[in-house]
Specification:
- By secondary structure, the protein is α+β, with helices and mostly antiparallel strands.
- The chain folds into 3 domains: 119 residues, no CATH class; 167 residues, no CATH class; 130 residues, Glutaredoxin, CATH 3.40.30.
- Helices cover 19% and strands 31% of the residues.
- It is built from 12 helices and 26 strands.
- The strands form 6 sheets. It has a 5-stranded antiparallel β-sheet. The chain has a 5-stranded antiparallel β-sheet with strand order 3-13-14-15-16.
Length: 461
Amino acid sequence: MKQLLLRILIVSLFYIFPFHSALAQLTVAKEQVVLTMNYSTGMEPGTVRSSEISKRTPEIRPDEEKTYPSTTGKPEDISKQIEYYYILDRFQFAFQNYCEGKSSREHFIEKVKNNYWNLADTIHLSRKSIRCGLSVLGGLQSDSLPVYIIDANNNNDYSDEVIRRVTKRITDSDKIISLSVPVTMDYFLNNKINTETINCYISSSNPGNQLNDLSFCFPAFRYNSFTYDDKPYILWTPIESYQDKVYLQAGKFGVPVPDETDPINIGQYVALGDKQFKVTRLPGNRNRVVLEGDGSVGFNGKLPSMPANVKSTGMDLRSSQVGFKAPLIQGIPVTNPDDQNEMVSLDKLKGKFVFIDFWSTTCAPCIADFPEIMKSYKKYSRKQFEIIGVVDERSAGSTLKLLKKHGITWPTIKTGTKGTVINGYDIISYPTTFLLDPDGKIIAQNLRGDDLLKKLETLIK
């Protein structure tokens, strides 16, 4: 009977809203919801998602170079040529190169580990190469004019493309969109290769020296607008981001204005009403979002009578996002590696505020923050406030040297060491920090400089 009701519910979604594509692109099954995302141009006002494209230079490792496509048709009248290649879907790119023998199994496994990918998700990837990257050729025309060619149709041939002048980087969203070039890309979904066109904006902070800082952005996003328990929500995700993530806008309906507040990563939770849904996958280069939870019947397809703002409690779940109980961290301090009695654990620090600092021994900004963190550590007692450092040690002994040099006395544990538990954090950059309240719930992320002290002054009287 329950299955029959669910089938009726799914069919009703398509008949209640025959003219709203976003609502029609939502599939409900037992404990799982699949949202098909719509494509829209646009970006958060005043921001540019831009970074340097990886250059194809002689310094690139040979095993990396052979994974890139071979290109032809490079104009002879462009001097000082340098080629770039940007990978839009890194997981797919790494997997297809492994399947075709262009990279070793060891190299692929290393990439999976470093990027926190799930090997089981390779069943959703194409074993055959697809166009999931982008070639760009930069150089000088007439010996001084910086230009570029983007392989917009992705056929690995520049001869049928337009030579464009490199412009100075701007932040005006409308102008960025107008200067963008439509690029053909592939994605793998439903066991078949699909093709789409997305916009790419090429620019430089210094057009006279574009060979060193040619950069890109994709002024577009994917979204789905839906209702849950008669309340409106929008779930959206950038076309491009180093890490798969989505953003939730509660109390809103329709096409969103992108706002990169409180990102939700794979394995973290989306709060809909009083239910929590885990984001498990973003297949097809984020053309879909798969959520898991036990409240799928709440996707009833009815338009709300009035908007509602929903806040996540998340007290019964562990996740490295604000509003949730922090995943367990424990380990033996590097200062006493042989003493099991010195085990540091979040579970032993209940009743006090805790600052977790993920840092690396080669991260200059991390080390530069030590004096500011020390101000908070000295101001408050260990009954009120504690710090746990989690260090990525790049050379043997470097952690102890840095701790001694900067007078760090709070417990520091090392990643990749037996006994160290940091599952659930998936740190991809340093520094990354979390502030926990006395109940172990995360109340702030990535506090830098004197922000920690300012925050604690509002919390500890």
